[in-house]
Amino acid sequence: MKPELRHLRYLLAVAEHANFTRAAEELRISQPTLSQQVRQLEKALGVQLLDRTGRSVRLTDAGSAYVHHARRALRDLAAGERAVLDVHDLSRGHLRLAVTPTFTAYLTGPLVAGFYDRHPGITLDVREMTQDRMEAELLDDRLDLGVAFSGAHLPGVEADTLCAESLSLVVGAGDPEADRPGPLPVTDLRERHLALLSEDFATRRHIDDHFTAHGVRPRIAIEANSVNALIEIVARTSLATVLPDAVTRDHPHLAPVPLAPAIPSRTVTLLRRESAYRSAAVRAFTELAGQWARSLD
Question: Which of 244, 240, 245, 246 is nearest to 189 (CA)?
């Protein structure tokens, strides 16, 4: 017997869950059937793929090696199916896009709206996630494109530069600093009460690094895991925050206040898997993202 695609999917499910019962539930087959199919695969290959002696099921060394190739084979087959179904006139299709959280406040809307206006037949799956998870999902072929920052990427992930993102202090339009003629010394923030993104955000770590470098420990009154929440808080209180300048463009009740020294800018990039098939939808979105970035200059 030669291994079939179902054998690969069954083995991967067991490896992911480390449990036959949970894997069977996900696959919607009975546990005895799943066990039988995996044993068929082991017999066909002539090796033991799973260690069933403990409380949980673990891959053997041979199993780990085989799963690596099985996962890649299924991923490539899925990419091949999408390539066959790709419609070059963009009358239909699908695009899987991810963005890091701060981009949802100013970038996701214009890009997605512009893409939908041009190509209403393309369905979009837009998700917000951390950059680490985004790169992992690109490599696993669970995403087509990701919008994130430049830097050290996982092997196999490539990046195209879109634009530079600058960060400023952001205050309500009625704040005394809103009409300040020049930059605000960053040391003045020692006495300012701030509302900032929570510490699990890369943007927050970038901000903290700048403050620390200049000996500033601001009074943090509120931490939030939502950019939109910070926007609403700053608009309704005397608190200030630090966000990308671009966030204020569509919010007339907010005002950016540049800092001195300025927080270092970051480079926004469009990420993809190096060897991934580039569908017509991917190519169209990449072109649109480049046009949007150039419009900011």
Answer: 240
Same domain, 136 and 123: yes
Same domain, 79 and 91: no
**Considering its fold, how many domains does the chain have in total?**
3
pLDDT at 235: 92
Instruction: Tell me the residue range of the domain where 235 lies.
Output: 167-264
| Per-residue model confidence as pLDDT tens digits over 6-41 | 888 888 898 889 888 898 899 999 988 988 988 988
> pTM score > 0.70 for this model?
no
Among candidates 164, 165, 157, which has minimal Cα distance to 271?
157
CA distance 154 to 25: 32
User: What CATH number does the domain containing 233 carry?
Assistant: 3.40.190.290
Residues 92 and 139 in one domain: yes
Pair (131, 154) in one structural domain: yes
Q: Which positions of the chain have pLDDT values less than 50? A: none
Domain containing residue 156: CATH number? 3.40.190.10
3-state secondary structure the chain: CCCCHHHHHHHHHHHHHCCHHHHHHHHCCCHHHHHHHHHHHHHHHCCCCEECCCCCCEECHHHHHHHHHHHHHHHHHHHHHHHHHCCCCCCCEEEEEEECHHHHHCCHHHHHHHHHHHCCCEEEEEEECCHHHHHHHHHCCCCCEEEEECCCCCCCEEEEEEEEECEEEEEECCCHHHHCCCCEEHHHHHHCEEEEECCCCHHHHHHHHHHHHCCCCCEEEEEECCHHHHHHHHHHCCCEEEEEHHHHHHCCCEEEECEECCCCCEEEEEEEECCCCCCHHHHHHHHHHHHHHHHCC
Tokens standing for residue 157: 């992930």
Residue with tokens 């309704």: 236
Is there a single domain that holds both residue 183 and residue 156? no
